[in-house]
Amino acid sequence: MHLRNLAAAGLLLCFVAEAVCAQNKTVAERLGYPADSKLLIVHADDLAVAHSVDAASFDALNKNAVTSASVMVPCAWLTEVASYAKDHPDVDFGLHLTLTSEWKVDRWGPVSSSDKVPSLFDPYGYLWPEAPAAALNLKTVEAEREIRAQVDRAVALGIRPTHLDSHMGVLFSKPELFAVYIKVAHEYNLRFLAVRLPNLSADFFPACPRRTSFWIPWSWPIPPFTPTSGAISMSTP
Questions:
Q1: Helices marked H in 25-105 — which ranges?
Q2: Cα separation of 80 and 26, whole Å?
Q3: Is residue 127 within 8 Å of residue 98, measured between CB atoms?
Q4: pLDDT digits (tens, 9 = 90+) for 133-148
Q5: What is the pLDDT of residues 34-56, one digit of tens each?
Q6: SS3 126
Q7: Among positive and negative, which fits the CA dihedral 142, 143, 147, 148?
Q8: What is the rounded CA–CA span in Å between residue 143 and residue 66?
Q9: Quick check: 120 pLDDT over 60?
Q10: β strands within the chain, DSSP E
Q11: Whole-angstrom distance, CA of residue 200 vs CA of residue 164
């Protein structure tokens, strides 16, 4: 019995040592490359925003010119992407969570109905055209409701998302939006593009394990936010 216990303890120590060793490896090493390798993911953004974007992205994916892409669920050409995704189930499709509509002519609203996310609408009935305006006006609970709706709609159409990121960086613009972004990613068991926000307490980040995210420095030129009442006025739709 004593020898059996020793053997079990030794086996447990081996498992622990192996786990610690794996955690200490760099991402490059875990992918089979030398520790100091520089790895590049070529990623296609904004799928579903236009047929031309989809066609070019599909061609690049088919030729392995890009290996990853992300989809704007509120946009008009979503079903085209869904059709491609069904025919190519191994493609790395993420969701480019969309809370802005920046084009002057071709604009879009949220997936959710206006009564559920009223703060996401600009005065013209679309998503806000710029990231600062969106981050200043939208309510966090409504932003969370909308990004959940975008994930659910993509899945319902047959897209199997591998990760999340944020169109125009809106969800990176302030801690409360970043928090719901991470919350949704964890609840749907999805990897997420993550950033280190300036002036954000280090206590915020232990809840964001590196093994489930891609971390990059963020330098989006969004000015400091000053709360104001009412919507931001715009001169053109």
A1: 27-30, 51-62, 78-87
A2: 37
A3: yes
A4: 999 999 999 999 999 9
A5: 998 888 888 999 999 999 999 99
A6: coil
A7: negative
A8: 30
A9: yes
A10: 43-47, 68-71, 93-97, 163-166, 191-196, 213-217
A11: 21
Q: Which residues fall within 8 angstroms of residue 232, CB to CB, at 6 or more apart?
A: 128, 133, 136, 137
For residue 128, what is the DSSP state? B
Joined together, the tokens standing for residue 153 give 């709609």
pTM above 0.85, yes or no: no
Which residues are CB-neighbours of 134 under 8 A, at least 6 positions away? 99, 100, 120, 127, 128, 168, 170
Task: Please report the beta strands in 68-154, taking only residues with DSSP state E, as ranges in sequence order.
Answer: 68-71, 93-97
Sign of the dihedral through C-alpha 6, 12, 14, 16: negative
The mean pLDDT of 210-217, rounded to a whole number, is 42
Residue 201 has which token pair? 């307490």
| 70 has a pLDDT exceeding 70 | yes
What is the C-alpha R_g of the chain? 21
Q: Strands 43-47 and 68-71: what pairing?
A: parallel
